[in-house]
Amino acid sequence: MQVPGGSAVAFPRQLGRAGAKPPRRRRLKRLHNRVSLGALFIAAAAPHRVPPQSMLCPRALALRLALLAALAPAPALADEAFQACLAQLRNTAPQKAVSAETFDRHTANLAPDLEVVALLDYQPEFRTPIWDYLAGLVDEERIADGLAMLEKWDSTLRAVDARFGVDPATVVAVWGVESNFGRNFGKRPLLRSLATLSCFGRRQTYFRGEFFTTLKILEEGHVDPAQLTGSWAGAFGHTQFMPSTFMRTAVDFDGDGRRDLVGSVPDALASTANYLAKAGWRSGEPWGMEVKLPSGFDPADTGRRNKRPVSEWAARGVTAIDGTPLAADGRRAGLLLPAGPQGPAFLVFRNFDAIFSYNAAESYALAIAHLSDRLRGGGPFATPWPTDDPGLGRAERRELQRLLAARGHEVGEIDGVIGAQTRAAILLEQERLGLPADGRAGGRLLEQLRAARPAPN
Ligand code: CA
After folding, report:
1. What whole-number percentage of the chain has pLDDT above 90?
2. What residues contact residue 376 under an 8 Å CB cut-off, 6+ apart?
3. What is the count of structural domains for the chain?
4. Backbone angles phi, psi at 129, to 5 degrees
5. Cβ atoms of 347 and 289 closer than 8 Å
6. Looking at the domain assignment, is residue 180 inside a domain?
7. DSSP character for 372?
8. Distance from the CA of 279 to the CA of which of 155, 166, 399, 456 falls in 20 to 30 A?
9. Distance 267 CA to ligand 1 centre (A)
10. What pLDDT, in 10s, does the model give residues 190-238?
């Protein structure tokens, strides 16, 4: 789950002139502005959405973090501003229905994490093609893991379906994409990230709300504070809910009186179903389906939001993927073309929008929708992506890392995550092989490195 709704970047007030040391209050204000300016320098001044971490280009990110470090105040000064801000926040705790005891217990020894301010304004330079994105999120490993989870949590998932009307495959697919079935919660201490974002950078009002909601969650004893880590923006647990989403939609399904999205799988599965139900999920209906376009199809009026009667799409020559006519049952659907009319095409119904609302990204929603189909026994998309350089699953990414390491490159841990080191190694190999040097981990590079591997003696 991401920070909802990007907003325009507000320019900071002009920096004070250098000279005599200003009063402490003004110095702190200036400090806030400097941090904002650092973040601004990092970001383009345009509205945007916070990208999922998996889409970040690590090299560009590292560069920008270094820039922030250069522009940001010395750590001691940032800490001074942070402590002053915390004291201010403490004064407003009673209005937020958080006790001073709770505030003090959970904010003692808190230091700012300025990296999260840079991440807030980060815009990726490296655009992940949709086929890479889906290849990593819906690979054989995640399908196998998802099938195992469907079996392991069968009775819980049936009970969740009975209460919320969301089927097991959909719930498990969300779980698999959001936290890899509980393996990736994010490592940043939640209160530290949210307190930092409450005090520095843009959108402080929003993050103050999330910060106090987190304190409320801890005060009510839902989650073990020692386990409360998450994404840089504050999404946490199996479901990667933001704290405010937790408050609105998390449920106690195992009956212990706590809504524990970190320690309880039943609570997490039920909370995911509750989220989708509140987002308008229609029980028993599909999210959508892959369809076939007639040759020369005009992509006008397509897109998820542009819902039209299925009969209208049929009249424009769209058929089921096997070429049979679409069932004109009065439903309305949008025609999604993630890679244009040359790639796979999908008619998407109301339930796709419910999945979309989880993360506000069509690629994410398509990954969840497709994974749910694969968990129901469906196959890969029938229409190939318009590329001759397909994306790699995580097992293939690990193989690529091993081949790069065998050629003497430093790639760090062989973990299937294309980080800064792996991308730098890919660039060098692409240049050596005369391939387009874009740092992308694709099928063509993998094939060439496989072929170049010396035969074992
Ligand atoms: Ca519980």
Report:
1. 76
2. 169
3. 2
4. -60, 150
5. yes
6. no
7. H
8. 155
9. 5
10. 999 999 999 999 999 999 999 999 999 999 999 999 999 999 999 999 9
